[in-house]
Amino acid sequence: MPLIEIGVRQLAAAGVTRVVVATGHEAVRLEAFLAELSRRLKIAIEPARVDDWSRPNGFSVLAGAERIVGDYLLVMADHMFEASILARLSSQGATDRGVTLAIDRRVTSPLVDPEDATWVRMAHTGRIAAIGKTIAPYDAVDCGAFLATPELAAALRAAIADGAAGSLSDGMQRLADAGRAATFDVGRAWWLDVDDPRAHAIAEAEAPAHIPWL
User: Fold this and answer.
1) What is the pLDDT of residues 88-108, one digit of tens each?
2) Is the distance from CB of 10 to CB of 86 less than 8 angstroms?
3) Which of 4, 23, 174, 175 is most deeply packed, by most CB within 10 A?
4) What is the DSSP letter of 98?
5) Bridge partners of 208?
6) Which stretches of the chain are assigned E, i.e. beta strand?
7) What is the rounded average pLDDT for all residues in the chain?
8) pLDDT above 90 for 113
9) Helix, strand, coil shares of the chain as percentages rounded to 5?
C-alpha cells in the first residue's frame, strides 16, 4: 500500500473529511492515483500542485494552505502515525498559539534517524525555543504532524521575504521567536518517518501492530 494512501486512511480514522495533497514530482501520475483513492475511500482529496517541487518544503505548505480556510492538520506524506496521535493533536487548538507541533521526547529511540531528524529545543514554558536539523542542544524530535493556523503560512511568507530559503522550519522558528509555537507530546504512541530502506524495513515489520487495518 502506498504511503500516501496510509496517510489518507489515518487522517480519515482521526476524523478528517477533506485532504489537500501538495503534488510536484510525477504530479500527473500521483494526481490520477489520488482521484482513484478519493472515489475508493469516499473522502474528498484535492491536489495542490507546487510550481517548483525542488524548492524547500515550506513552498508545499504554502501551496496547500491556499486551498484551506481556518485551521488544519499538516502531516508529512512519508510519515506514519497511530491515528490517536492525529485525533489528539486536532483538539489542541487555542488562541494563544499559531501552530502546535507533535513532538517525541524519546530522542534516542531506534525509530528516530539522527542524521535526518528535525530537532526541537524547548523553552521553560513548554513552547518551542528552536527547531532545525542542526540545533544543539535539543529536548525532542519533530514528529512531522502539526495543527496549523493561518499564522503558519503568514510566517513562512514573511521568512521568505526576509531571505530565508523557505523550509517549514523557517516558518516554525519565526512563530517560535514570537512565542506562538506550542507542542503536543505524543508520549508512547507510535510514529515513523519512512524515507530510506532502513525505515521502510521497520515500517514493514512494525506498522501492522500499530495500524490495525494494515
Assistant:
1) 999 999 999 999 999 999 999
2) yes
3) 175
4) S
5) none
6) 18-23, 44-49, 72-75, 79-81, 99-104, 119-122, 128-132, 140-148, 181-185, 191-193
7) 96
8) yes
9) 35, 25, 40
Q: Is the N-terminal amide bond of 212 cis, ω within 30° of 0?
A: no
pLDDT-based confidence at residue 48 (cuts at 50, 70, 90) = very high
Closest CA to 88 of 172, 207, 185, 214: 185
What is d(CA 190, CA 143) in angstroms, rounded to the nearest whole number? 10
Output the nine-digit C-alpha cell for 23. 503534488
pLDDT of residue 162: 97
Q: Which three cell numbers stand for residue 116?
A: 535526518
Measured distance CA(59)–CA(65) in Å, rounded = 10
**What local confidence, expressed as pLDDT, does residue 213 receive?**
85
Phi and psi at residue 38, in whole multiples of 5°?
Answer: -60, -45
* pLDDT tops 90 at residue 211: yes
pLDDT in tens, 132-165: 999 999 999 999 999 999 999 999 999 999 999 9
